Structures are given as C-alpha cells and as structure tokens.
What does this fold into?
Amino acid sequence: MWETIRRWFDPRELRSVGHAPDYRFSLANERTFLAWLRTGLALIAGGLAAAQFLPRLPLAHLREVIAVALLLLGGAVAIRAVDHWARTERAIRLGEELPASRFPAVLALAVAIGALLLMIAVLVRGVG
It folds into this structure.
C-alpha cells in the first residue's frame, strides 16, 4: 500500500516505466482525473451544505450522518481518482489493457441509495 502511495508523488518513477505515449492519451487521462476530483469536491461541498443548511430531520442525528457520509464519500472519490490516474498512466506507458474498476458502479449505487434515503426523510418530514 505505501509503495502505491509513494508512486503517486514520484513522477520520475512513472516516467521510467515503458515508453512515452502519445501526449493526447496522457492528457485525456488527466482530464478524467480532474473530473473525478470535481465529483469528490461536489460531494464534500454537499456534505458541508448538509451539515450547515439541512433542518433537523425526524431521526436523531440523521443530518450529521448524511453530512459525514457525503464527506467520506467525497474523500474516497478523491483518493480513488489519483490511484486510478496513476494505474491508467502506467498501463498506457506499458501498452497494457487499461485497469478495470468497480468504483464507478459503487459510487453510482451509493449516490442512488443516498438520494432514496433523503427522499424518504423529506417525505417523512412533510407528513409529520
């Protein structure tokens, strides 16, 4: 694990692997990385907004649970973004198949479940 994290911060190690690819592939990989970072930042902003602006919900501490869940998910997306960027860049340089990931499906499922739970909380609050 520490070796993987060390690689994120050592561009020389990444450039020493394989051969230099067409720069357009590296730039596309970087744009994907930045899109994931924007997603992580949006989730973090949503967590802060939930903590500050959601009214008290019918279940005790539900607002705080929602905020913390969004903050953790945003942090996980940011970490996953840099890991995926590094693994993809390495695969491009080595001419290997790009790494597969279940993370987009997991993230989509987490967001959908979160939206469903929020909808239920809103409906319970509206009825109560």
